[in-house]
Model the fold of this input.
Amino acid sequence: MTANSGLRSAQWFGETGRSGMVYRSWMRSQGFTPEVFDGRPVIGIATTWSELAPCNVHLHRVAESVKRGVWQAGGFPLEFPAMALGETLMRPTAMLYRNLLAMEAEELMRANPLDGVVLLSGCDKTTPGLLMAAASVDLPAVMVTGGPMLSGKYQGTDVGSGTAVWRWEEELRSGRMTQEECAFAEGCMARSNGHCMTMGTASTMASMAEALGMQLPYSATWPAVDARRFETAQRAGQVIVGLVRDDLRPSAIMTRAAFENAIRVNAAIGGSTNAVIHLLALAGRLGVPLSLDDFDTLARDVPTLVNLQPSGEYLMEDFCYAGGLPAVMRELDEAGLLNGDAITVTGSGAGANVAAAPCWNREVIKSLAEPFQPAGTGTAVLRGNLAPDGAVIKQSASSPHLLQHRGQALVFDSPSAYYAVADDPDLDVDENTVIVVRYCGPRGYPGMPEVSNVALPKKLLLRGIRDIVRICDGRMSGTAYGTVVLHVTPEAATGGPLALVRTGDWIHLDVPARSLTLEVGDEELARRRAGWQPPAPHASRGWTRLYTEHVLQADSGADLDFLVGASGHEVPRDSH
Ligand code: FES
Done:
């Protein structure tokens, strides 16, 4: 055993006397031989595994592959659980708990004898949650996402998780599909381990982790059940030991240049609007200057290259076989749209990693010369008197004819209030109506759930109308589509202008001009504000109270105010 190798872990396992005996002895109860305490890097493997988070349920197996790599490279791997956030089951929304996962994982990494960490994530919030934790501890870290499910197959066609659900719901409500058919179809959609296989939030965030340089090339796209997923995990285990030896930490990788890469890649893949929230929160942990407007300005020159649902046709499995994210990043790099020098966990720059990346299918991954959608059709940031601090809209998921629209508001204080009347044949609504659903923000719901793309009123569905403008202070699933203005900030629950809108008010949406205007005069708005009452608190105790009292608005990534920034990885005081 080395007395002190300079590693954090040596301050536990390298100790002599009573302390050292305590640290080592209980670890040996697991059957480790004494050589594991010889000063080799101790690598934590944070596993967000749970049967309650089906997208992550295989991560325990992925961890076994990581361990092989760590042993191979001369490290000592130790797997530990971190809060598993399953998007589909958790109420009121998994987003309420993203910051709790980040806080839990951060504290576990700092309090334990770890020299580096491998982050195993999959479902939407687990990827940003673990990255935020790693950023605030700033220990060497590599991410391995769990990979997408195999493509869904229903009646001879590919169906995308999430995206198909929205479509089937419309079919059901308009009578074109029976409940029995829906029940059969749902079994055909999610048919393997893995996260959603559309370009939803999980695929987007996996791609963001790769674009930021925090996971190995191709890691975002190997299907969850593909042997190469496990091969990559093993490689990541080898890589983390090298990163510890080189002391290459997240703060050196996730720089402003890396975030610029991520934002451009998000535009190129037609990624989820949720990336905006998560990247802003992550940048806040690292002290990297990043604003909501960066997402608009940096993405304006970038066309959508990837033809994936919900904006396009194909699924993540197709994306993988077509060449994966490196093929996209190579296109961007060759056009000068990538900061190629941004260092990554490979030890090389983002450009070098993808310089020889082939594309095998131009139907799925288009070229910059012939893109899937032209530049400027990605996420747009809107401002105006209805969203003074900003709102976003995913243009590629919107109907082009609605991107400039003036209509009268039909206002609801919750999604349930809307759904209570959505099937009413006498509902006063037509294709020009703007449905406003509010009190769905970080503080309002609480947790900023994915409820903004409320299904269309039945009356309109029966007329064959498939899209109208909707405005909300909540989020939208990355698998969803529609002309939906999201993340309206400040949210209604903090007294933002959205709280003052009344049914019948005129609203003007002008996406090319990046504006969202409530056509009500300042005096009238002041009168309404004077009569506005804030909603009652959601909780008198516990996490929800802490969250609602400290959560920041969407334009700051909805992190908690006291979690912004980093505390580093200094070894805490001895426990004995
Ligand atoms: Fe987990 Fe979609 S529900 S990734």
Notes: Residues 227-246 form the longest helix (20 residues). The chain is about 35% helix and 10% strand. The chain has a mean pLDDT of 96.
